[in-house]
Structures
1.
Amino acid sequence: DAGVTQSPTHLIKTRGQQVTLRCSPKSGHDTVSWYQQALGQGPQFIFQYYEEEERQRGNFPDRFSGHQFPNYSSELNVNALLLGDSALYLCASSLGVNTEAFFGQGTRLTVV
Amino acid sequence: AQSVTQLGSHVSVSEGALVLLRCNYSSSVPPYLFWYVQYPNQGLQLLLKYTSAATLVKGINGFEAEFKKSETSFHLTKPSAHMRDAAEYFCAVSVRQAGTALIFGKGTTLSVSS
């Protein structure tokens, strides 16, 4: 079992650019949640996808959007990148919204 | 609304000493509470969770936590620290028993010296 896998592990983008991060959930899981973890902070909930729809959303601007595919994998898109978007982005998967979430190792995004 | 406050951004203990990491929560509904550990350059691993079945919760690696409603606390303890316990620890709250859509504290870095 590969667990939750995220790609890429690191990337560097320029202010104003757009970025797409990817997440493959743990085998058997159908729900994906995304978190942003700024340096020295705890993770902050961005949104959750279940049955290819955004089910819950945290306090993030519309520049943050996502998608879930029929195979349950997910993408996080961030438009018009700001320096403050630099963070570790964590993906967590679960079976439905009422089972334990397992976290991936994250994607480290640096905006310069 | 829910929130979590972790008291002390950095805790240092000697190997073999008691570990105590403090967490206080605020919730308008009965909370589900969690402790996660994060090792450098890794994701989060669940240590234990409170889901109202028992107030004293035992987790992995010898950690345990006690839910105290009167104090709105969920402190994490371990009787004897090991070097391998050095990591970042996060307390989190959720309205869901499973712990999805978690609200995390800012974390406490645990250092263990020999």
2.
Amino acid sequence: DSGVTQTPKHLITATGQRVTLRCSPRSGDLSVYWYQQSLDQGLQFLIHYYNGEERAKGNILERFSAQQFPDLHSELNLSSLELGDSALYFCASTSRANTGELFFGEGSRLTVL
Amino acid sequence: QQQVKQSPQSLIVQKGGISIINCAYENTAFDYFPWYQQFPGKGPALLIAIRPDVSEKKEGRFTISFNKSAKQFSLHIMDSQPGDSATYFCAASIETGGFKTIFGAGTRLFVKA
């Protein structure tokens, strides 16, 4: 158990809909990273938040947005969903010691029908 | 320049054999090279990591070999076991106000009993 909690574990929705994925980092960790894992495409970096502030953006679509709240949990909002958005979405946190190690949650599997 | 290329995509090894996964990178600013192991239904977890000031790091049956001049690094799993069957991701990271970590596409390893 990495200590990173993600909900929901599974989500099935229709095209055009909007969903929110939630992540609670490990206790004491200030950074949250979001990654998308599609079949055969590895882990694509989406966005990084540190203590409530956006620090870096990767290949995140304009239809997607994220935020990190004062209690350090983060939400990833996906809107106007398309079939191609079906994927596993992981969040990860890093320790304050900044060793570089990412601690991943178990992911949220999104299926868009 | 931000890519990390990983090969092979999949690998089948007999129990007791050596599994070898290779990665290459372009950006010489990367300064942390981790390998993550992912089991089905789980998030990736750090397996072993190396910094570019050493050429080899060994932890139990797992060894990273690092060739700075060639910008390549590899994971060797000695005495491979069925329990090692998982997807392995190499990654390269740079600390820029948070760790920017780029992942390879992943290698699915299957160890035959």
